[in-house]
Amino acid sequence: MADQTSDVVGEQATEGVPVTINGKELLALDGELLIEAAERHGIYIPRFCYHPRMTPVGMCRMCLVEVDTGRGAALQPSCMLTCTPGMVVETESDVAKKAQEGVLEFLLINHPLDCPVCDKGGECPLQDQTMAYGPGESRFIEEKRHYEKPLPISDLVLLDRERCILCDRCTRFADTVAGDPLIQFINRGGNTEVNTFPGQPFASYFSGNTVQICPVGALTSVDYRFRARPWDLEETESTCQGCAVGCRMAVQSSRNQVLRYVGLDVDDINWGWLCDKGRYSLQAVNHEDRLGVPLLRRGDELVPTRWNDAYEQAASAIRSALEARGPAGVAVLGGARLSDESAYAWAKLAKGVIGTDNVDAQLGDGLPAELVLGLPRATIDEACTPGGSVILLCPDLKEELPVLFLRLRHAVVNDGVTVIDCHPHANGFTALAAVSLPARPGEQAEVAKVLTGALGTDREVAGVAPDRLARARALLDAAQGPITVVLGRQSIGESGAAIADAASVLLSGLPGVRFLSALRRANVHGALEMGLAPGVLPGRVSLEAGRSWYATHWPGVPEARGLDALGMLRAAAAGEIGALILLGADPLTDFPDRKLAEDALAGAASVIAVDQFLTRSSRRAGVVFPAAGFAEVAGSTTNLEGRSLPLGQRVTPPGTAQPDWVIAAEIARRLGTDLAITSVHDAQDEIRRLAPSRAASGVAGGVELPLLLEHLPAPVADPPPVDSYSLRLVATRKLYDEGVLVQHAASLSALAPGTVLRVNGYDFDRLGVEEGSVVRVKSPRGSINVEIRIDNGIPRGSAAIAVNQPGVPVAELIDASERVTDVRIERGDT
Fold first, then answer.
1. Per-residue pLDDT for 565 more than 60?
2. What's the number of CA atoms in the CB half-sphere (13 Å) around residue 234?
3. Distance between CA atoms of residues 768 and 825, nearest Å
4. Are residues 354 and 392 in the same domain?
């Protein structure tokens, strides 16, 4: 929070609450806690239980100070006391010091003095405050209490109970911040301890935050325990690349190996929190399977080769494709893993040098680039505005964008934000929503028409009952604050057209509405903004609007709009793509349509992969370039708000792996063109000069820049007909899956939960199947066998299943060209 107050000097009048601390008259903010006001003015009051992002509870009493509010001085916990006019406070009086010494002496009665081996040693508030405020020696000489240690309370977190000082930080975080009250105080009196319920581990997506905020070494991480001391670590600030939220973090390393990620408290974004996927994905950076040398195909094998040979092979494949089919014969798939600078370099190579517009950073599970780039944008803070309204037309945020889920959860619980949840089944936000509208996949636009008043609430729409529709409509009619739509693909079993239609309806029918993108991949927004999408050029301009501008600065510009991911894979499957370039993309794992991905990799004349690992797809390539990854390159990334955030380099890449922009520049040189990018700073300077959305003003060099994209409401397609003999598939994602990042992080790889098919109990009776049995699920595309279970959070007529989980190839059911996927369920013995 920005400092809005200053000391009272002379007769100067400044708004605020006047208080006197240690003889100095200061101004506190209205409603500010004493501990916060003192710290803002440079007076530190020791504390353990207080945390600025959680409701104070006054558990530890370490922050006791003398306070006189007109009735005489008394010891009071400064974390529980709101500043009032005329308050007189002494934080360093003899009485306050004695109280603080007593608290520390009490806490150390049973706390082990094992600082030399404790993970918290060197960065421990208890250690520091004992030195600064403690009595120096204890009157207690009895044997300290001992517990079995460590106690694994989850797959990621260990508990040393004898170190715990019962500060309530971890339990408060789990309950009030994460909404996962899985760790609690048990027993009573002197036997009170923190623990989990029997048989219920601390299986929260946010458990690593409790390790970070623990003021002692009671909670430790499995992957960091006994790995390093704080003074051994070097640190660089960066931005998490686990998803698109853009959580700020510190990357800590020792001896050129990344050892820990620590969340940074940035008010606009993550408040210091990280999800466990983002926090523990560091193991992928250090993984032994990281590619360190280029690979060339020799028969059925990929063998190490020299960089020069790999570049020549890639350039030769591109030239052959150009000679055979022109620029349309080259396709570039992926790029959401790249930094902004690398994405720009590849866009310039593809569109400016090769001349192809067949470029897409999304893998068929996103939304049209013009929609994402052209809708009026909201920030996370704007979506969380007290008293505002949020329409969730997006995937399960807890599974795909976990820290955005935390921010919105806080807004609902504490700030009176009203949420209308339009997810097609019960999800992580359902219990927090004012009303849930579980619309059938493909029919979201019909519900949007009800929300805008274009349709009435007197009948069922898209499978949603009239009373729910009326409640949601009434909430929006009564809304006083801003209305924000969180927009993203709810199911990869449907096309993005349904969500795009719903966005058009809401844009035209709700004045002043703003949109917050919920695309999941790390830097997909930066990749789209840098031009890695068909029909757009860097800086959020369309190909047509920016053609003349870029034609004067680039070697060339594509002549016509190209293909998206679906179109490229179709063309490759038909033998029309001579060179398919995969930029950190693994369509065999991530593309919704498995059969099409298989056919495309088989049909492309040549496949060139730029990746950090050998994936299912890159194993099919003819040449593989090893790319430097997170913490190994500097630059910037763009989060889902469109906010540009820095990426820090902390370690060197494995072997001879190179940044993606270097690979693009070298391929361009082999094709006879200089990209004029020799460093990250070159790319940044060129982006600022050329990209309209990143330019300092609307003109550059006296020439007016092209206008930014603006999405205009489009005609809405009719909803797909309902097949009474089938169930509509809702194919969703889990935080832990078989993705490359998770599977190369040892702490996370075993956490992919697997999947079952979940249907409403009503449909069970209709289908004649038994819960827990294995059924055959069939679509026009293919069939799979999977266990089936009852879930009454699934609307009638729908079937939900998680994709990219071990053992169940859900992508074999999906035809990416269809608006929705309908499936039929048969008993396994038929």
1. yes
2. 11
3. 10
4. no
